[in-house]
Each structure stands twice: as C-alpha cells, then as structure tokens.
C-alpha cells in the first residue's frame, strides 16, 4: 500500500509527454501474454505469504467509513484516481485494493431493506443492528419517540476503547453530529436532532438530549474531534466566526449554551486546543496537544473539489494530525474516519463530486498506512450502504469516467454518459424527450448525471458493500457477514469490550512457556537432591 502511494506521487510529478509514453508502453506490454502471466504469478506469491496469519494483538484500530461508497463507487473512484495521473485508470490500484482481506457486509436495518446511515452506523460501531434514523439505540427504540430511548441504549467500540485506556478520535467531512459519527457517542432516537433547536419541544421537555450535547457529555474527554457542525454548538442567532453576516450559519441552540466555551473551560489544564480553520490546525505541535476540537464549518465541510485550501483542511490533513496526537498513548488508539460527502454527492446526482471525495478518502487511507504498522494496527475500510449509482455502456479502455458511452441509444438515438443513476435529480425531459447530454458540459463538477426516475434526491442502494481489512486478525473479515459483525472483530483484535478472554489465555500461555525452562531445572534439581 505504501509503495503504491509513493509511486502515485512519483507519477503525478511526471510531465504529460512522459506519462503518455509510459501509458503507451504499458498498452504494448498488455498485448504480450507474459505480462499478464507474470503479474498473476507475482500476485499468487503475495497471496501465499498470507497463509501465515497476523494474530498479533492490535494496539491501534482505524475504521475508514466511506459514506455511500458502494462497490460501483469504489471501481469508478479507482479509474478516476488513475486518470488524474494521466493513466488509463482501470489498472490503477486504490490503497484499499492493496488490503489483503476482503468481505461483504449486509447493510439492511432492522426495519429497512435499504439502509440509512444512522441505523447502519449503529451496526458497525455498536455491534447491534437497529432501526433506520436512530443512533446508539437498539431496535426496541422507535424513531422520533423520545420515551423509547431510556433502557435501549447500546455502547460503541469507541467507548470500549476509551474504557480500555486507549485514546479515541473522530474525523469526518460532515458535521461531527451527523449520522455516522454520532453513533460513536450518542444515544438518540432521531438522527436529525443535531441541537435542541431541531428537536420537538415535547422531546426536550421529556429529557431527551440533542446529539451535539451528547458529544461532550456522554463519553468524557474524547481525545480528537474534527469535522463540521459549528453552528449546533452555539446559542441561537449567535453569528458565526467565519461567516458573521450569514444568518443560515448562526447558532441554533435554544438553551443558549455555548458548548465550545464549556469544553474550553473544562479542558483548560489538559493541553487542549479548539481550532476552526486550517491555519490554526496546522500551526499546532501535536506533541504538545492531548485533546483537540476542530470545527471547520457551520455545517458540513465543502466538497474537496470546492475546498478553500487556505481555510479548510483536507481529510488527509485532518487524519495526519489526529494520528500524531492519538499515537502518543502507549496503550494505543481507536480512530473513526468518515469520508461523509461521497454520500452527499450521490444524493445530489453529482457523481464527479462523489468520486473525488472517494479518491481523497483513499489518499487519507494511504497516508494513515505510512504513519502506522500492519503489525500492531488493524485498519478496516467499508461503507454504510451503497447508492443507485453505476457506470457502463461498453465504454472503451481509458474512456474518461465522466464521458459518453461510445454509442447512441437505439431507442431515442441520443448519446448517454457512462455514469447513470437509477433515480435522482438528473431526470429531465425536453419537448417530451430525454435531454440530449451532448449539448451539456457533462464533465463539469456539478453536472447531475441522468437518472431513470425523477426524484429531488437520489436514494441509497440496497446491495452488499465491501469490507477491506489489514493488520492483526484482519483474516476474521472474510466471506459475507452481517454489518454488526465488524466492531466485534475489531474489538477481538484489540482485546477490548466483551472479547478479552482469549487475550488473558494467550498471555497466560506465553507466561507459562516462559516459565517452563526454570520449572524444568527446578524439578531436575529436586530429583538430584532426593
């Protein structure tokens, strides 16, 4: 994985004419059967090395969650990654492609055939399948019904890691109180209760807590928190530090609490820092930071294609800082990283935004790999659900992933793009006929790909998603599994949560084997004396 990452950096530095020569040389090689046989044999030899399983105890755990990153998205992102380096694309390897173990995850919620992010996050973080729209509660809880919360709370692997003495962190490109991250710390019957300003008055009166408040109250001292969602932490109508004149970014809290100020006061003697822009983040010395709260936008972070490089950190930059802080703990760490806007791009029908988000997450995966070791760090990459996204149309090798299929429809005699959605906002009829995409800039960043069924927002897909794993006990992720199996494997690998008996047995066995030579010598001496 690290070698591929370094090679991609090297290729990116090549001038275009050299890249073209390299591509043509590779294309010529592919005509020779020896090329494919050699590649396959090399892959075979690598596979044989996996027969010796890594059964170390995982000191560190990292979960990369691509929100909405179904298998078609993984494949398309792979092609895009290659094409961004002037390669054909199909033969490119994502960082996650280099993980030695792959499984499939069944994503359905307890009450939904096609999952939503909240119920799915409860599965892959808390180890329990749940209803759609709920976070950190079992399926006995009913969405939006406050009185079904108490007694139905379920805890997450982030909490298990914290209780075991590890440092813990959350990094996301969405709001830190969005569906995926919130399942790591909150117990809420409605994923949309970001602050008390979004809650029904009766739910507040009944004692239910908003998700932003739970971020700071449920699990004491989460070591690293980075993402968006600033407005949910501040009193209603308080102006935002970055966008002081824009009302849509004003604070939302009806209880008038300033959660950031409260956090600062509580953490003032603990080497804690609050930052709200990239400059502040990158000016920190991680060696002198024990706790970090970074809220870089009032809502979600911008798409990577639209990110202001001066003010907003990339996912890779956030991950680097997070690992530098967390790895100082000799007991290790648990880190949840969400590429959350892959999902948003697909919902908007904006495939280019979604795929660039996936490529950026893959870059972060590669960077994390350079900062950690497979000997003591288990890394898992997966998705919560898929989308109604796909690409096809018999496109030739090297066809730009955002380009046209090489044919016209034999029904309406119009061109079509390779990328299409089953449903979504890209459906458009002009004079009673499908819109002619050749009259549009279909490679523009915010182009909405055509869809079969008109919807204001495209929907999730229901097929299984991939799980990529490397590091200690990664071989336990194999075959087809229920989504809630994932945190159980990760906890087993790290000897946390309910899976610790095997650790005590193995440590006991190693202590016994270490003592055997001394015991044998003692018995021999006793025999001689007798």
TrEMBL record:
Gene3D superfamilies: Alkaline Phosphatase, subunit A. Homodimer. Belongs to the alkaline phosphatase family. Its cofactor is Mg(2+); Zn(2+). It comes from Salmo trutta. Its main location: membrane. It is a lipid-anchor; GPI-anchor. Mg(2+) binds at residues 67, 178, 180, 338. Binds 1 Mg(2+) ion. Binds 2 Zn(2+) ions. GO terms for molecular function: alkaline phosphatase activity; metal ion binding. The active site is at residue 117. InterPro entries: Alkaline_phosphatase, Alkaline_phosphatase_AS, Alkaline_phosphatase_core_sf. GO terms for cellular component: plasma membrane; side of membrane. Keywords: Cell membrane, Glycoprotein, GPI-anchor, Hydrolase, Lipoprotein, Magnesium, Membrane, Metal-binding, Zinc. This is Alkaline phosphatase. It is an enzyme of class 3 (hydrolase).
């Amino acid at each position: 994985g690290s070698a591929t990452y370094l090679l991609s950096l090297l290729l990116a530095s090549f001038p275009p004419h050299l890249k073209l020569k390299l591509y043509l040389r590779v294309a010529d090689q592919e005509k020779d059967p020896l090329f494919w046989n050699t590649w396959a044999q090399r892959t075979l030899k690598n596979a044989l090395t996996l027969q010796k399983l890594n059964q170390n105890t995982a000191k560190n755990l990292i979960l990369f969650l691509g929100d909405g990153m179904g298998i078609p998205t993984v494949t398309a992102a792979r092609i895009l990654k290659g094409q961004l380096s002037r390669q054909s694309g199909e033969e490119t390897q994502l960082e996650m492609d280099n993980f030695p173990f792959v499984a499939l995850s069944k994503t359905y919620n307890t009450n939904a055939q096609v999952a939503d992010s909240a119920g799915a996050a409860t599965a892959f973080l808390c180890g329990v399948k749940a209803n759609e729209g709920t976070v950190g509660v079992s399926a006995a809880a009913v969405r939006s019904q406050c009185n079904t919360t108490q007694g139905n709370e379920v805890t997450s692997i982030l909490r298990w890691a914290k209780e075991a003495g590890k440092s813990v962190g959350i990094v996301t490109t969405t709001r830190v109180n969005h569906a995926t991250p919130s399942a790591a710390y909150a117990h809420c019957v409605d994923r949309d209760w970001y602050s008390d300003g979004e809650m029904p008055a009766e739910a507040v009166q009944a004692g239910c807590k908003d998700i932003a408040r739970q971020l700071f109250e449920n699990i004491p001292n989460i070591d690293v928190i980075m993402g968006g969602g600033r407005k949910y932490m501040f009193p209603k109508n308080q102006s935002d530090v970055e966008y002081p004149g824009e009302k849509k970014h004003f604070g939302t809290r009806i209880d008038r609490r300033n959660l950031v100020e409260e956090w600062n006061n509580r953490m003032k003697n603990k080497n804690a820092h609050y930052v709200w822009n990239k400059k502040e983040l990158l000016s920190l010395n991680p060696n002198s930071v024990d706790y970090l709260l970074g809220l870089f936008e009032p809502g979600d972070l911008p798409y990577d294609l639209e990110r202001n490089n001066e003010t907003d950190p990339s996912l890779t930059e956030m991950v680097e800082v997070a690992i530098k802080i967390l790895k100082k703990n000799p007991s290790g760490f648990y880190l949840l990283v969400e590429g959350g806007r892959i999902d948003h791009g697909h919902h908007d029908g904006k495939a280019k935004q979604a795929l660039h988000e996936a490529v950026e997450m893959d870059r972060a995966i590669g960077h994390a790999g350079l900062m950690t070791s497979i000997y003591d760090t288990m890394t898992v990459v997966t998705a919560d659900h898929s989308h109604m996204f796909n690409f096809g149309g018999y496109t030739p090798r090297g066809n730009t992933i955002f380009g046209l299929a090489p044919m016209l429809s034999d029904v309406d005699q119009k061109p079509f793009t390779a990328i299409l959605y089953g449903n979504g906002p890209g459906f458009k009829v002009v004079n009673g006929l499908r819109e002619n995409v050749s009259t549009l800039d279909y490679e523009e960043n915010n182009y909405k790909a055509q869809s079969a069924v008109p919807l204001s927002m495209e929907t999730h897909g229901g097929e299984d998603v991939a799980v990529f794993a490397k590091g200690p006990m990664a071989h336990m992720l194999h075959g087809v599994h229920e989504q809630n199996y994932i945190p159980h494997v990760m906890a087993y690998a790290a000897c946390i949560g309910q899976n610790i008996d095997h650790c005590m047995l193995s440590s006991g066995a190693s202590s016994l084997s270490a003592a055997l030579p001394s015991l044998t010598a003692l018995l021999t001496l006793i025999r001689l004396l007798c």
